[in-house]
Structures are given as C-alpha cells and as structure tokens.
Amino acid sequence: MNECTLRAAGLNKSYGTNHVLRDLDVVLEPGKIYGLIGRNGAGKTTLLGCLTGQNTFQSGEVTCGGEKVWENRRALERICFSRELPETVMGSRNSQKIGHYLNAAMVFFPNWDQKYAEALLKEFNLDPKKKIYALSRGQRSMVTILIALASKAPVTILDEPVSGLDVVMRERFYQLLLEEFSRSERTFVVSTHIIEEAAAVFEEVLFLDRGQIIEHAPVDELVDQFRYVSGLAEEVDRACTGLTVLSTQDMGRRRTAAVRGGEKALAELSSYDVDVAPLNLQNVFVALCGQEHPQA
Amino acid sequence: MKNALRFLIRSHWPVVVSFLIYGGVMMAYAATGGTRSDGILTTYYYLFPLVPALFLSIFQFSSGTAYLSMALSMGCTRRAYFGANQVLMVLSVLVNWVLTALFLFLPQWLGWQGVEPFMPAAALPLLPLVTLAVGECSSAAGLLRREHAVLGVVCYGVAFVALMCLAVLVQVVKQVWLWGDLPAILLSVSVILGVLCLVVEVQQTRQAVVR
C-alpha cells in the first residue's frame, strides 16, 4: 500500500447525543485533488479532524499508509491539516504573530519549504510581525493557504481555505494549488462551499451528508449520471420511468425533474419529447443533499 | 518530543530574557542604594523570588490554552507535547533558580554595602520544587480552561495557593515568622498540589482536541 493512502473505516463520532459521523468509510488515494463538500453542520471539519488525529472518535480506525494516525508521529509527519486561524483564543484576542505560526510550522513539518513560504508571504502581502487578531478574515485565510502549501506534506488538507477571499485571490489560490500539484503530486483535500468555482480543480469529490460519505467519485463520472429533464409534466413522467428522480419543479403544465441514471437509461431520454440538460457539480450536490426524500 | 521542545523553547525564551532584564534592573537599583528606601521598586526587589514563578505561571497557562492547540494542529502528538512541556518546565525552573541564586549573592560578591538580600539564603533549596508546583498547577489550569471555564479558574486558584506557599517560604512579607515545621508543611502542600495537577495535566492532554 502506498505510504500516503489515508483511510478511515467504520468511523463513528458523536458530540453528546449528536451522532455526527456514522460508520464512515473513506479511502483517499495519493496523488489526487479531492473536494470535500457538505452542508453546514454535515461534519466536514469533524471528519477532517478525525482523519488527522486532531479530534477523537468513538470507534473506527484511521490509517495513513497502513499505520494508525492517532498519536503516531511517523504518520502525522506526512499530513498537514490547515484550517482557519482563530481570531480569538479562549475569549481573548489571538495575539500570536503570523511569524510565530510559520516558525511552528518550520519545526513540525519536516518538508517545510521556507523559501516558498517567504515568496508566498510577499505575494500575499503579509507581514510576519502582524498579530492574528489584526488580520482580516481574508488575510487569515491566506495564512492558512500559505502554511498548507509551504508544508510540502504528502497529504495536505485545507478546511474552507477560500472563505473570506475575494474572487481574484480565490482564482490565485486555485492556480497555486494546481501549480503545486503538478510540481509535487501531493494529495490535496479541500473542503469548500463554493463548489462550482472549485469543481474545475477537483479530480474526485466526496459528498458528506448526515454523517456518511454518500458520493465519492471522479467529478466527470459523477456529473455525467445526472440530467435535468423538462417538458410537459406527463411527458417528463414517462421519460423518467426507470430513472431516479431527485427533485421536480412545476411551473403550470411544465415540469423540470432532476434525474439520475446509467448511461443507457439517460441516452433513451432523447426518444421522448423533452429537453435534456446536464447538471453542474453544484446542481448535483443540491439535488442529492438539498432534498429530504429522493424518489425512485 | 524534540520538535515539541524546540517549539516550546522558541515560545518560552522571551520569558527567560524578561527575567534577566528584570534581574538586571533590580541589581542596578540595589547597587545605587535604592533598596534602602521604601518605594515601588523596593517592593519589586523583594518580590524577586516570586517573579520566575509568576512568569512560568503565565506561560504555562498559555501553553494549555493556546500552544497545545497550535502544536496539535501541526501534527505534534499529545505525548510528545506533554513530555516536552515537562522538560521545559524543569529547565525553566533550574535556569531561573541559578539566576536567582546569582542575583541573590551578587551584591555580596561585589561588596555592595547596605544591600539586603531579597530572600533568606536558607530558602534557596526550596525554590525549585515550589516554583515547579506553581508551573504544574498553572499548566493544569490552562488545560482545564479549554473544556471547563469554571474548573480552569478554580485550578488557577490552586496555582495561586502554591504561589502563596512560595511567598511565605521566601519571606516576601518580612513579618512572617517561619515557625517550627511550617516550611516543611508549605513545601509538602505545594508538592501535593503540584502532583495532583500533574495528574490532571496527563488526563487533559490525552483527550485534548483542536476545534
């Protein structure tokens, strides 16, 4: 097994009576860019914390390269989990300086690239002497991104790195991510709410909903399974026989249905008097996780 | 543990430097005869032996509330952090003990007239253990504060009790009469509190999470 395959099996995590992760299984193969997508409160940060030994869990196993991650320095040295820096710590302002975080990263990440970190500091126009509480949300995101990229960890996880960034910086982040990926073939896992922008960067995507990974597939393969079917309600209903209808929207006599099916079943839609359109990744996510009860 | 110790030393050395500066200022004040008069700096002079304990207490509280999370978020193990923090505490106590002894005997070695020692030399051997106890209690307070604000405050009160034991032992208040077994009692109380807090540290560090 590759020493950077990150695997969770039967992961269960609860906060009191709130069962956040339920028998969750996931395998993250090395050398890919994964997108982790889920609604607010779905458990993304909890999952990432459990995968990286920063959060406890009630049962299950998390390994990296076949070795348990929990309290294992060898495994943890291969992983960087970069999350938003807190503006406050225990109710007080976070008066640590950017430089302090970077010095800590230099100590703990064996592959830390100081030159790259300095170049990113300059590009992001960040002053290492500045205190965290004095940074804007976007600047704190930039520090998160800097640490993640300069860590050169074989498995690098970023939790909502683009929150607070303006559109120009978000585009620059995706560029930097792809540049670094093409240079190093590191594994990246990026959790985000801004799905459509990031979709072009992800090779595979994981949807987290109600404590489980409900989808884990290459982006193109996943999106290819879904279509919008629109037309007269009766015709749409006939066309959708045998397909999984995820949602419908009626406007007068016209109906639009979001459906899922295999290649052959979707190809047969063309024989009906309906309009067929593809969904993008965001639409797929909303169709799967925005509804309570998918209809088959 | 080596990395965790490097991380903590980088964060802690300004504390030692601050104590050195404090010591330098106090020695200059004593050399110029300032300690013969009453005044705020004279008070600070006689608080000398408490200063390392105070600085250590503040640092250890931050260690539990902030530095632990930073280290864990960068892949440090809890075991390594705990071990490194204990090593740092012992090193800090020993270094400050040596510096305190140096500053205590410096006026005598240099022949400064009329400079009273800021603590009885007989209390010097007691300093490291009691200072360490203050550090352990403060570290436990910081760790408890992460999960239970009230318990953290209560534990910081325990650290304060250890600090008061230290204050009495070094006779910060000159009128205190260290009778009979009182030094031994105060030392024992501090050590017991320190050991109890050490147990709390082990338990809290083991289950620490980054949120």
Largest interface: A-B, 27 and 25 residues
Helix % of chain A is 25-40%
Unreliable stretches of chain A (pLDDT < 50, length at least 5) are none
Strand content of chain A: 25-35%
Polypeptide structure, described:
The complex is a heterodimer of chains A (296) and B (211). By secondary structure, chain A is α/β, with parallel strands linked by helices. Chain A has helices spanning 44-51, 73-76, 98-108, 114-123, 137-151, 167-184, 195-199, 219-223, 233-239, 263-267, 281-289; strands at 6-15, 18-28, 33-38, 59-64, 67-68, 79-82, 88-89, 92-93, 155-159, 187-191, 204-209, 212-218, 226-232, 244-251, 254-260, 275-278. Chain A has a 6-stranded mixed β-sheet with strand order 6-9-10-3-11-12, with helices on both faces. A 4-stranded antiparallel β-sheet of chain A has the order 2-1-4-5. Chain A has a 4-stranded antiparallel β-sheet with strand order 14-15-13-16. In chain A, helix 4 (114-123) packs antiparallel against helix 5. Chain A is elongated, with a radius of gyration of 21 Å. Chain A starts with 5 loop residues before the first strand and ends in a 7-residue tail after the last helix. Chain B has 211 residues and is mostly helical. Chain B has one domain. Chain B contains 7 helices and no strands. At the A-B interface, strand 6 and helix 3 of A face helix 1, helix 3 and helix 4 of B.
Provide key terms for this protein.
heterodimer; A: 296 residues; alpha/beta; Rossmann fold; Alpha-Beta Plaits; 2 domains; 6-stranded mixed beta sheet; 4-stranded antiparallel beta sheet; 31% strand; B: 211 residues; mainly alpha; globular
What's the short version?
In chain A, helix 4 (114-123) runs antiparallel to helix 5.
Topology:
The complex is a heterodimer of chains A (296) and B (211).
Chain A: E1 6-15, E2 18-28, E3 33-38, H1 44-51, E4 59-64, E5 67-68, H2 73-76, E6 79-82, E7 88-89, E8 92-93, H3 98-108, H4 114-123, H5 137-151, E9 155-159, H6 167-184, E10 187-191, H7 195-199, E11 204-209, E12 212-218, H8 219-223, E13 226-232, H9 233-239, E14 244-251, E15 254-260, H10 263-267, E16 275-278, H11 281-289
Parallel strand pairs in A: 3-10, 3-11, 6-9, 9-10
Antiparallel strand pairs in A: 1-2, 1-4, 4-5, 7-8, 11-12, 13-15, 13-16, 14-15
Chain B: H1 2-31, H2 40-46, H3 50-73, H4 78-109, H5 127-147, H6 149-169, H7 182-206
Helix pairs in contact in B: 1-2, 1-3, 1-4, 3-4, 3-5, 3-6, 4-5, 4-7, 5-6, 5-7, 6-7
